[in-house]
Amino acid sequence: MPVLASIKPLQWESDFFSLSTGLLDFSTPTPLDASASSPFSLLQAKVSAEDIDRLDALQLAGFRVVEGEADFVLSVERTTRQPGMRIARESQIPLLRDAAAAAFTFSRFREPWFPADASARFYARWLENAVRGTFDHQCLLAVDEQGELQGFVTLRELSDDARVGLLAVLPTAQRSGVGRRLMAAAADWTRVRGLKRLRVATQLSNLAAMRLYFRSGAQLESTAYWLYR
Hints:
The chain is α+β, with helices and mostly antiparallel strands. Helix content is 31%, strand content 31%.
């Protein structure tokens, strides 16, 4: 089976990482040849785990599996407001950038395809943009009784749904229910805006996150693989 796809330039990633990057678009199938690939230093593809033929074809074409991804969905008909939740402010960006850089040290933005510090830099910028409302629309913080940061979640409003962008609990607040509070607050944020579902994705290697989403009432909707060449 040949690889049939066009290539969509990922301009933001290309600029951020100084690496010309493209994403395969399977909705416009044309033979993937050297001339189409030549402008890009890195090609990415996201493929459903059920699409075995396409996965095989990509690997025969030189693509390598980098990471698996699990996508969850949570209904939000009934939610409750959570204590100790705050909206992140721009004055908190330096603290939150450091927290995100420490929390997301391993991702698909890793060696040998990206520099060693790429994941930390990428997610620090993501969190900054979420606080400013320029990518995700809002960042919620979980704090303790003294107002100290325990964790954060970023949220983006879609057509009928919301999506969690980033969710992390600080090491000092692990195993104290903060993750459940953040998920419940995200669900409440979604319901208050008249949306129907909350979506969230994580790496297949992140068992702790998957356990959190299951315990929060989410259902596994799909799985996929990321491949690079």
